[in-house]
Amino acid sequence: MSVMPSLETLTVHGLGRVAEPYRDIVPPIHLASTFERGEDGGYPGGRMYSRDGSPAYIEVEEVLRQLEGGTQALVFASGHAAASAVLQALQAGDRVVAPRAMYWGLRKWLLDLAEHGYIELAFYDNVDLADLDRQLAAAPTRLLWIETPANPTWEVTDLRAAIALAQKHGAHTLVDSTVATPVLSQPLALGADIVLHSATKYLNGHSDVVAGALITREDSALWQRVRSMRNLGGAVLGPFEAWLLLRGMRTLHLRVRAACANALQLAGALEQHPAVAQVLYPGLPSHPGHAIAAAQMSGGFGGMLSIRVRAGEDAAREVAARVRVFKRATSLGSVESLIEHRASVEGPTSRCPPDLLRLSVGIEPVADLLEDLQQALGV
Ligand SMILES: *Cc1c(COP(=O)(O)O)cnc(C)c1O
């Protein structure tokens, strides 16, 4: 009888290859930067130099490829480096259409590239497909950028419909799926061309690695340029970070499911809290994107939610100052819960409401998290 292990088992086992000669259960860390040539001048080991693609990436890229259902995956030195490789793979002056609500660091990067003439840039309303259609129709567009749920207000974009519009207008689609994770959403199966992850977040999951990843549906001409941009741009991941990322991913499914369950419970409880004006979480039936999220995410709605504090910005900062279990820090997707007053991090160009607190819900017992938020909000 042949056993076909599930994707989850493959992930738990980190692919499960046993390394010779000691039959290590976990892969050794390949540190070599360079590899020996044969007497004939060839490369009998199939490797030349680690900036081209280190053997340290084999397992982690294969797990990522399988998790997203793609044909190839690449790891990068950060989520930003992964995004940069895609943007550098475009032709100068190519048009990019990006969502109004998106991870602010990459929004800043797109605006900077546009200001300096590297790309043309237009924005669309994350949830307004008619607006997206108009923006795509306005001029030939090379790349549609999608992020769902989108930082830090968690708008949900209808992936199937948005990708169909991009295809109609001849644009490639990139989906930043950092918050959804491959556990909950598989954009490539819906026709997206490239999925981007800040692997710093859920994929690694322990606040101890900065890394990025891209997974492609097809080995397209664009992808081949992206591949060469990692090598030429040089934003390669270190072997130890690749190893840590693989190690972190072994518990990905458990961590994501636990964070989703906690976030859903907290969102429901906070929605009833008198000090909270609004809870932004796609898992709540009151969220305008709930039905679309339910249709395109499976197994949960993610571990990220935001609350708007009724008494305003100063009160929101005071709530953040009073937490005892949540940690005050930026970033997301780790086992420990984090809280952040987002507008003050993003600075003067922020589009984030000043009364908003962003919560990255971890995997602690939910009672500890709820009690902490209740005491911080004041009951
Ligand atoms: C953090 C983040 C990024 C950037 O990734 P880095 O690893 O910090 O470079 C991109 N997109 C989203 C949604 C993020 O949360």
UniProtKB/TrEMBL annotation:
Keyword Ion transport: no
Entries under InterPro entries matching the protein: Cys/Met-Metab_PyrdxlP-dep_enz (IPR000277), Cys_met_metab_PP (IPR054542), PyrdxlP-dep_Trfase (IPR015424), PyrdxlP-dep_Trfase_major (IPR015421), PyrdxlP-dep_Trfase_small (IPR015422)
UniProt key word tRNA processing: no
A GO CC annotation given for this chain: cytoplasm
Domain of life: Bacteria
Gene Ontology biological-process entries: cysteine biosynthetic process via cystathionine; transsulfuration
Entries under Pfam families matching the protein: Cys_Met_Meta_PP (PF01053)
Required cofactor names: pyridoxal 5'-phosphate
Keywords, ordered alphabetically: Pyridoxal phosphate
Modification type N6-(pyridoxal phosphate)lysine: residues: K201
Single GO MF annotation: pyridoxal phosphate binding
Family according to the record: Belongs to the trans-sulfuration enzymes family.
PANTHER family: CYSTATHIONINE GAMMA-LYASE (PTHR11808:SF15), TRANS-SULFURATION ENZYME FAMILY MEMBER (PTHR11808)
Annotated protein name in UniProt: Cystathionine gamma-synthase
